Amino acid sequence: MTAVAGLVEPGRRGRALGALGLASAAPQFVLVPVAPWLAERAGFWLVFALAVLPALAMPLAWPIARAVGGRDRTPAEGTGDSTGAALRRALSGPIAALAVITASGGAILTFTPHILASPASGFFGLLAFTGTAAASRWAAGGIADRYGPTPAIAPLLFTGALGLAAIGLRADHTHDAASRALVIAGLLLAGAAYGGLQNLTLTQAFIAAGEPARSTVSIAWNLSFDAGTGLGAFAVGAIATATSYSAAFLALALAVGVVGGWGLRPGRPV
Predict the structure, then answer these.
(1) How many angstroms separate the Cα of 269 from the Cα of each of 11, 92, 213, 265?
(2) Are 171 and 115 spatial neighbours (Cβ–Cβ below 8 Å)?
(3) Rounded distance between C-alpha atoms, residue 76 and residue 94, angstroms
(4) Domains and their CATH numbers in the chain
(5) Tens of pLDDT along 193-238?
(6) What is the pTM of this model?
């Protein structure tokens, strides 16, 4: 992501990040829904073997790093303390939005096969989520370049909250077709928010922090993505164990909606 930001001018950065997102989401779109089936039929060894295949592309990182060169070594203006405080303020909104939506994604990817207990339903549920996430992440790039990323962040957070609420309403009662359809519809909405917000929050963070802070933004974004994914799966698992999946996903919906509302406050864009 730092390389994309360094190689592409700001006016086309959203589309470039969208293309990068589509390239990374396409394998997820195919393999995540198929993984439970593969694990059941062929064994976990095949799933783990497929998971390490991206490491084969590591040699390609060297020419990319040389192409970027020293562009990210430009020092930021101002004193260390004041610059750090300004950077934290600039990143707080997009990082908060990213954290709650990736927490939702982590929970969905972990627990959808348990909620939609049949293999076919679990497959179509994960396909709906990963497919809309891939498409939304790519489409959000054009929106960010044309209108800026900020106006779309809060609406996508509310879309994600609506999808999570739909999942939560029937997460413990998916024995009938209508309940499964509602859960899958919720996964479609949550997937659109999950994919689109990955692009928009990163683009917004680059804009808010400024060009000299590209490397810092990339590190903060990646850490927040991974932390949100892990904490979301952990928190939903803990809440579901103590209460139910419905309560866990409704709590997630509330958290996402609160961050969306926070971003709508005057002078506080997400």
Answers:
(1) 20, 10, 19, 7
(2) yes
(3) 20
(4) 18-42+89-263 (1.20.1250.20)
(5) 999 999 999 888 888 877 677 778 888 899 999 999 999 999 999 9
(6) 0.80
